[in-house]
Every structure is written in structure tokens, then in C-alpha cells.
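Severity: low
Component: inverse-folding endpoint
Summary: output formatting inconsistent between runs
Steps to reproduce: submit the following C-alpha cells with default settings.
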């Protein structure tokens, strides 16, 4: 997997005096070792570190740091690096976007040794019109991601922190449709949330209402 500058820039931003970098631990290399806490920075594709997280949380405190692009500047270049255009992406990242990644490691938030910090960042994404990118980008490849700034941070240290993402108005028993409506999120995102929470023990299936599963908050 390509490692962009964004990864190193987040590592530099997040580090404090005394941190150790690229340290071996349980047959893995850790981005940052802070005392007994292993800190992993992952800019996308949580599935790539699924086994790593599962193994390390058995013996150590593990913090996953995820830079969520709140605002993105897109710079597109030709093959000779001539800038063709620069524009701001109309899409603004929101906290629920993190579940698009968490579904790759759905049970991890149930571990008492796991925490996650979401950094809302401004970033620049450099693309090249080289004909090698995906059909969605019409042959334009992503060549680089750079950190422009960190706007705010949200730390999830316990199951209760994750449960606080559910609307207060939501009853103890609810369906995906009710969650989507009350949280004002797409139904697919509601399904991602309940999948992660169910796999982590935060929710259980209490029955069905027609075709819809009824979820119940545990605890």
C-alpha cells in the first residue's frame, strides 16, 4: 500500500517528547511507542492492520489515530508535473465517515485495550492525469496526500464514548431506519454503525419488526 506524506506528517504532529518511532513489538513495527501504549496511524484501509490490532490489543494499550479529511484541496497535474487545475472538494468529511473504515475491523472497539483518536484535517490530494487511475476518477491517479492543518480532535477511550454517537432521542430498542432518521445520516451509514457496535458487544439483536432487525443497547 502506498504511504503518502500525510502519514509521516501526522506522526510528527502527534508525537511528544519521549516517544519512540518504528519500534518492534510482538513481531510488528509500531509507528509510535509511548510508554506501554502502541500508537498506529492509519490514513485509510483499516483492513490492512486488522491482524496487527487484534494481536497487539491482547497485550498492550493500542491507540489508532485516523486523520479524517474534513476539507480537501485537489491538485491535478499532467505527467510532467504541470498543474492543470486546483480546486476545493465540495465534500466535507463528517465523524460518521469513520465507520466506513471501522467495518473492516468491526469488533476492535469492544476491546478495553483499544482507543481511537480522530483528527479532523485539511489536506491536499495531488492527482496525475496519467490514465492509470480508477474509472471513477476517469484515469486520474492519486499520487500524494499532504497535511495542511488539524482542525480538531476527538478521542474515543471506551465503549461508552462510542455509544455517545447515538442520538439521545433514540430509544433503547431501535431499527437502522430509526437511527438513520434521528441521526440524519444515510441508511448505509446506520447499518455500518450497528454492524460495528453489534460485533463489539455494544448492541444486541432484540428481535425483528417486519424485515427490520431491532437493536438494543447493552448496559
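Observed output (run 2 of 3):
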Amino acid at each position: 500500500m502506498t504511504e503518502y506524506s500525510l502519514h509521516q506528517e501526522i506522526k510528527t504532529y502527534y508525537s511528544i517528547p519521549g516517544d519512540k518511532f518504528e519500534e518492534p513489538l510482538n513481531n510488528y513495527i509500531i509507528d509510535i511507542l509511548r510508554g506501554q501504549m502502541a500508537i498506529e496511524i492509519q490514513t485509510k484501509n483499516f483492513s490492512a492492520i486488522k491482524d496487527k490490532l487484534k494481536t497487539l490489543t491482547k497485550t498492550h494499550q493500542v491507540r489508532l489515530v485516523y486523520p479524517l479529511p474534513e476539507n480537501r484541496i485537489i491538485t491535478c497535474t499532467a505527467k510532467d508535473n504541470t498543474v492543470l487545475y486546483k480546486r476545493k472538494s465540495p465534500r466535507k468529511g463528517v465523524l460518521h465517515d469513520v465507520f466506513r473504515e471501522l467495518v473492516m475491523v468491526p469488533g476492535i472497539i469492544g476491546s478495553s485495550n483499544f482507543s481511537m483518536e480522530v483528527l479532523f484535517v485539511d489536506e491536499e490530494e495531488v492527482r496525475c492525469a496519467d490514465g492509470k487511475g480508477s474509472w471513477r476518477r476517469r484515469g486520474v491517479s492519486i499520487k500524494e496526500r499532504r497535511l495542511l492543518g488539524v482542525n480538531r480532535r476527538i478521542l474515543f477511550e471506551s465503549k461508552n464514548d462510542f455509544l455517545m454517537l447515538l442520538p439521545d432521542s433514540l430509544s433503547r430498542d431501535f431499527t437502522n431506519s430509526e437511527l438513520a432518521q434521528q441521526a440524519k445520516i444515510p441508511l448505509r451509514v446506520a447499518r455500518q454503525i450497528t454492524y460495528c457496535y453489534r460485533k463489539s458487544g455494544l448492541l444486541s439483536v432484540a428481535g425483528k419488526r417486519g424485515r427490520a432487525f431491532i437493536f438494543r443497547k447493552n448496559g
